[in-house]
Design a protein that fits this description.
Helix content: 25-40%
Number of domains: 1
Strand content: 25-35%
CATH superfamily: Lipoprotein localisation LolA/LolB/LppX
Order of helices and strands: HHEEEEEEHH
Number of strands: 6
Number of helices: 4
Mean pLDDT: 80
């Protein structure tokens, strides 16, 4: 008899459970996008205004839930071996150029520039939880 009562009780409870708010959904998205540590290979295809496709492939490493990230280019050959290091959620950005062997720190204004000609900025690539400040989630 207990089994019969549990099922309807479970259904009643689930019907009255609160729907998640827009902010709760955004928090879950940010948590999934910024795990404590992560490693992966990413591919980004950009379609230019002339319709030309440019594809970049890179290794990415992330630590401290996105506070630090490193991207090392694998393709195309003209950028292979170049790297980008971002700390403090992209407040500090360093670029390594394989051809010159030099590391250069980008000016803080550069974080609002387009990343490889895409619609994303450098800040978008390493922004951590800044979405909370930039958007008002509504369900």
């Amino acid at each position: 008899m207990k089994r019969i009562l549990l099922c309807p009780l479970f259904l009643i409870i689930s019907l009255f459970a609160a729907e998640p708010t827009g902010e709760e959904i955004l928090d879950k998205i940010i948590k999934h996008m910024n795990p404590e540590n992560a490693k992966g290979i990413m591919e980004q295809t950009i379609i230019t205004t002339t319709g030309e496709k440019r594809t970049f492939r890179y290794e990415t490493y992330m630590a401290n839930s996105g506070e630090k990230s490193l991207m090392r280019y694998l393709e195309p050959s003209r950028v292979k071996g170049n790297a980008l290091l971002m700390t403090n959620y992209s407040d500090n950005i360093w670029m390594y150029n394989r051809r010159t062997g030099r590391v250069r720190k980008l000016a803080s204004s550069a974080k609002n520039q387009k990343f490889e000609g895409s619609d994303f900025t450098y800040a978008d690539m390493g922004s951590g939880e800044s979405w909370k400040d930039e958007y008002t989630p509504i369900l």
